[in-house]
C-alpha cells in the first residue's frame, strides 16, 4: 500500500504483529473503525474504513488479494498456491521490480524461500515485472514493490505492501542503542498502561526513547538513563531527557502517574542495581493509584496490585508486559 494512498472503504487487509500482542492490535484496529474478522498467531484479517490511521501496534499491513486453505506440508503442495494465484484478481498496477517475503508455521517440507520463489514467478509473469529473490541473501533493490505470503494452519494469505517500508520502521527512529525496544511493542505497552491526557509519564531506563516516543500525545513525558540519552534526544527532541540512575530519580514523592519502562535484562544491557532497588524508587515517585508498566523476565513486585500480564515472543525471547498499580 503506497504511503500516500488510503485504503478504500471495505478494503480487505491483513496485519502482522508480535506473537502475544494480537489482542492489543485487534483492539486498536477496532478503535480505528476496522472490522476484525480473524485473529490467529501473529496475524489479523480485517476490513478497513476510509482514511485508516496508521496503526501503531502492528508490524505491518498488507492488502489481501488471495486467501486459500493450508495447501499441505510437502513441496508439491505449493502447486495449489501458484494455481490459485495465477487466476486471482490482483487489483494492482504493474511494477518494474517486485519482491516477496514469506513466513511458514508448522512442519513443512519446503522453506520460506521456496514459497517466495514460487509466488514471485507467478506475480512476475502476470505483472510483467522482474522478480528479485531473497534466496542466498539477496536484497531487493530500492523501490521494489514488496508482496507478503503467510502459510500456516489458518491458510495462505497473499498481498502487496507496496513500495513503502514496513510500518515497524518508524521514520523518527534514526538512532539506536543495544537492547532498544521494538516500536510496536512500545506502542502496545503504552496502550496497555492506560495513559490519559495530562498524565505524567516517566521512563527511568529510556535507552533510545522508544517507549515515550510511542506514548500518546497530551501526556507529559520525561525519560532518563544511566548510560546517557543522546539517542533519545536524537529520536524525540521535543520530549524531556536527562541522565540519571533509575535508583534515584529527581521527582518528588507521589508526583508521577505512570512509570513506563523496559529495564535491563542483564543480556544485551547490564543492570546496575537490582530490579527490587529499581521498584523501590519507582514506588516512591508514583502517586497512590499510579501504574508501573514494564517489560521483562522479572516477576511482579511484591505488595503491588497486578492488573495485567501479557507474555510475548520477541526475537527468540519470551518476556512479559506487566502492569501493576501502586
From TrEMBL:
InterPro entries: RlmKL-like_Mtase, SAM-dependent_MTases_sf. Coiled coil: none annotated. GO terms for biological process: methylation. Keywords: Methyltransferase, Transferase. Residues 170-298 form the Ribosomal RNA large subunit methyltransferase K/L-like methyltransferase domain. One of its GO terms (molecular function) is methyltransferase activity. The keyword Endoplasmic reticulum does not apply. SUPFAM superfamilies: S-adenosyl-L-methionine-dependent methyltransferases. CDD domains: AdoMet_MTases. PANTHER family: THUMP DOMAIN-CONTAINING (PTHR14911), TRNA (GUANINE(6)-N2)-METHYLTRANSFERASE THUMP3 (PTHR14911:SF13). This is TRM11 family SAM-dependent methyltransferase. It comes from Actinophytocola glycyrrhizae.
Amino acid at each position: 500500500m503506497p504511503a500516500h494512498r488510503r485504503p478504500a472503504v471495505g478494503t480487505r487487509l491483513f496485519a502482522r504483529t508480535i506473537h502475544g500482542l494480537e489482542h492489543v492490535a485487534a483492539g486498536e484496529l477496532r478503535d480505528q473503525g476496522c472490522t476484525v474478522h480473524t485473529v490467529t498467531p501473529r496475524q489479523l484479517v480485517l476490513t478497513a474504513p476510509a482514511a485508516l490511521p496508521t496503526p501503531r501496534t502492528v508490524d505491518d499491513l498488507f492488502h489481501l488479494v488471495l486467501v486459500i486453505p493450508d495447501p499441505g506440508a510437502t513441496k508439491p503442495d505449493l502447486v495449489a498456491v501458484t494455481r490459485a494465484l495465477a487466476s486471482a484478481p490482483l487489483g494492482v498496477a504493474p511494477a518494474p521490480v517486485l519482491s516477496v517475503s514469506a513466513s511458514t508455521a508448522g512442519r513443512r517440507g519446503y522453506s520460506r524461500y521456496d514459497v517466495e520463489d514460487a509466488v514471485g514467478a507467478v506475480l512476475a509473469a502476470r505483472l510483467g515485472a522482474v522478480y528479485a529473490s531473497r534466496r542466498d541473501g539477496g536484497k531487493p533493490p530500492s523501490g521494489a514493490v514488496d508482496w507478503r505470503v503467510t502459510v500456516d494452519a489458518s491458510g495462505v494469505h497473499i498481498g502487496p505492501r507496496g513500495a513503502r517500508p514496513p510500518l515497524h520502521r518508524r521514520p523518527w527512529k534514526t538512532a539506536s542503542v543495544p537492547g532498544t525496544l521494538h516500536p510496536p511493542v512500545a506502542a502496545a505497552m503504552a496502550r496497555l498502561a492506560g495513559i490519559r491526557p495530562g498524565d505524567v509519564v516517566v521512563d527511568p531506563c529510556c535507552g533510545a526513547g522508544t517507549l515515550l516516543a510511542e506514548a500518546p500525545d497530551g501526556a507529559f513525558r520525561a525519560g532518563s538513563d544511566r548510560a546517557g540519552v543522546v539517542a533519545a534526544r536524537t529520536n524525540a527532541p521535543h520530549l524531556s531527557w536527562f541522565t540519571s540512575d533509575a535508583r534515584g530519580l529527581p521527582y518528588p514523592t507521589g508526583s508521577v502517574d505512570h512509570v513506563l519502562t523496559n529495564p535491563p535484562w542483564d543480556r544485551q544491557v547490564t543492570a546496575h542495581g537490582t530490579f527490587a532497588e529499581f521498584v523501590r524508587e519507582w514506588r516512591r515517585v508514583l502517586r497512590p493509584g499510579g501504574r508501573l508498566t514494564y517489560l521483562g523476565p522479572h516477576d511482579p513486585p511484591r505488595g503491588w496490585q497486578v492488573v495485567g500480564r501479557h507474555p510475548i515472543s520477541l526475537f527468540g525471547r519470551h518476556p512479559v508486559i506487566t502492569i501493576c498499580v501502586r
